[in-house]
Amino acid sequence: MKGSAEIAKLLKERGLRISLQKLEIAKHILGTCRHFTAEEIFREINTDFPRVSRATVFNVLNLFAEHGLLKTLRARSDVLLYDSNMAEHDHVVNSKTGEVYDVKFTPEERDSFLQAMWLKNPHVPKRKTASVVIHV
Ligand SMILES: [Zn+2]
Q1: Cα of 30 to ligand 1 centre, how many Å?
Q2: Torsion over CA: 33, 49, 68, 90 (sign)
Q3: For the segment 46-96, what is each residue's pLDDT rounded down to a tens digit?
């Protein structure tokens, strides 16, 4: 977790205007390595900061994603996840619990997973840089 001054500096560097809500949300998620839904952050933020609306949380998370502070992740069919781990990595999803884990495949492993996935799902665009999501 980072301090307020450090976070304000980071937001400014990314071209974002500072607001109390943005600072609260950023403090809560940046510098962590986790996957979350907007709804989860809305609930967590409002335990100690009860005046941030659901719409604000959704908007701020999308803004952070647009400005490279978060990644979005389609690891579950039911909901969009955000990922605060900005390093290049892949994911393994537990199909039963929906839990998402960070993994780092070697280029060879990634290539063979992608080839197998494209074989099964020809409609998926063939991008070598795509991060791999495996459901187990
Ligand atoms: Zn991740």
Answers
A1: 13
A2: positive
A3: 887 678 899 999 999 999 999 999 999 988 778 899 999 998 899 988 888
Q: How far is the CA of 62 from the centre of ligand 1 (A)?
A: 17
How many angstroms is it from 54 CA to the middle of ligand 1?
23
* Rounded-to-integer distance, Cα 8 and Cα 101, Å: 29
**Ligand 1 centroid to residue 6 C-alpha, Å:** 23
Q: Same domain for 115 and 71?
A: no
Residues 84, 34: contact at Cβ < 8 Å? yes
pLDDT for 81 equals: 94
Same domain assignment for residues 21 and 75: yes
State in Å: Cα 120 to ligand 1 middle.
23
Q: Vertex 7, ends 89 and 28: CA angle to 5°?
A: 65
User: Residue 131: pLDDT above 80?
Assistant: no
Same domain, 53 and 107: no
Domain that includes residue 49, residue range: 4-83
